[in-house]
Design a protein that fits this description.
Radius of gyration: 22 Å
Number of strands: 15
CATH class of the largest domain: Alpha Beta
CATH topology of the largest domain: Quinone Oxidoreductase, Chain A, domain 1
Largest sheet: 7 strands, mixed
Bound molecules: NADP nicotinamide-adenine-dinucleotide phosphate
Oligomer: single chain
Strand content: 25-35%
Helix content: 25-40%
Length: 357
């Protein structure tokens, strides 16, 4: 309206102000509007979020492309009993939250008026919880979420690869109450959670057996694994070894075979429980001298701080397989889903370099 009322030169000036204001309120984000293959991911201009009084606006620099992101995108979850509650939560006909990304690193852009624990420019990393949104250039999150200062000795790419794997691994390794010298088997050790679990179990003094596919052996041994079993060739349950702790992230593994190879007083922890495992676990705990449990990690700030300390002390490193630009988000998801990646797949959000500390 204003534009059409103004004269020629004014028109151009007002139009340019109007468009730059519009651009200012837009950001680029990887979005998806229907469930499906990686090709449903599109790079789009979307409204830039505005932080509420208790929120921080984060300029995202890197986001991990996780197995969970791929599961939410395709709506193919390995744990079937979870289908209905998830579908209701995530959107029955199409995804309710159209920007994925649960784990990120970045910088505080601005803070809501009630936020006292962050300041603009601070480098952070953390978890977006059920809000997601880290596949966009900016994400607004409550300041009370699991967001803390980024480790000083990690690049944005490396830091983005920590929260999912590190928080989940730390939760389960602490829950296992590992004592120095105990034998710990980690099934699915080469993934985001497993690579952190191996390092954390080693830092607790355990003797670690890593189970994954053969191409991950070198990486897992470098991270500290004492023994390695290639699941494509050997069955760890049939090798005649027993363990004090089994951390199992593979949904199809045999529960009874795992319980059988636990030592007396041993603990079995499932990070990916089928309904049958959830039903059988309490009976194992009540009626045998072994403990079986499953959990969904809470992902707290205290745990992330403990991880940062371990990173800064050199006890944990972050393994980044490959960094993709935003336009190649579909490729990033394909690599997570179908290829034999070594470490985390990271998406560089925005244009600036993310691989230096
Ligand atoms: N409980 C919780 O709170 C929680 C939280 C987050 C995620 N999760 C779940 O935990 C699981 C692991 O997550 P993640 O992010 O670490 O996944 P990930 O990065 O994909 O890692 C899974 C690893 O397991 C390996 N694997 C596949 N089949 C195997 C088998 N039969 N035996 C041994 N290893 C096998 C994979 O290797 P290949 O390359 O050979 O496939 C991969 O290295 C996911 O299913 C996820 O949904 C649970």
């Amino acid at each position: 309206m204003m534009v059409s009322e103004a004269g020629g030169g004014d028109n151009a000036r007002l139009w340019s102000q109007f468009t730059s204001r519009c651009e200012f309120r837009l950001m680029q984000a990887i979005t998806y509007s229907k469930y499906g293959s990686p090709d449903v991911l599109q790079l789009n201009d979307v409204p830039k979020p505005t932080p509420k009084d208790d929120e921080v606006l984060i300029r995202v620099r890197a986001a991990e492309a996780t197995k969970s992101d791929c599961e939410m995108r395709s709506f193919r979850f390995s744990v079937k009993w979870f289908w209905l509650p998830l579908r209701i939560g995530l959107g029955l006909r199409k995804p309710r939250r159209q920007i994925l990304g649960g784990y990120f690193s970045g910088e505080i852009e601005s803070c809501g008026k009630d936020v006292t624990n962050f300041s603009a420019g601070e480098q952070v990393f953390g978890a977006a919880g059920l809000r997601l949104g880290a596949y966009g250039e900016f994400v607004a999150l409550p300041a009370r979420y699991t967001i803390i200062a980024k480790p000083g000795n990690m690049s944005f790419a490396e830091a983005a690869a920590v929260p999912l794997g590190g928080l989940n691994a730390l939760h389960f390794m602490r829950r296992a109450r590992i004592q120095a010298g105990e034998s710990v088997l980690i099934n699915g050790a080469g993934g985001s959670i497993g690579t952190h679990a191996v390092q954390i179990a080693k830092s607790m003094g355990a003797e670690v057996t890593a189970v994954d596919s053969g191409i991950k052996e070198d990486m897992l041994r470098r991270l500290g694994a004492d023994h390695f079993i290639d699941y494509t060739k050997d069955d760890f349950a049939g090798a005649g070894q027993t363990y004090d702790v089994i951390f199992d992230m593979v949904p199809g593994s045999s529960y009874s075979a795992c319980i059988k190879i636990l030592n007396s007083g041993g603990r079995y922890l499932s990070g990916n429980p089928r309904l049958s495992v959830m039903l059988r676990s309490p009976f194992t705990t009540w009626f045998t001298d072994k403990i079986a449990s499953f959990a969904f990690a809470a992902e707290t700030s205290d745990e992330l701080m403990a991880l940062r300390e371990m990173i800064e002390d050199g006890k944990i490193v972050s393994i980044v397989d490959k960094v993709y630009p935003m336009e190649q988000a579909a490729k990033a998801h394909r690599r997570v889903e179908t290829e034999q990646r070594l470490g985390a797949v990271v998406i560089a959000i925005g244009g600036s370099p993310i691989e230096q500390t």
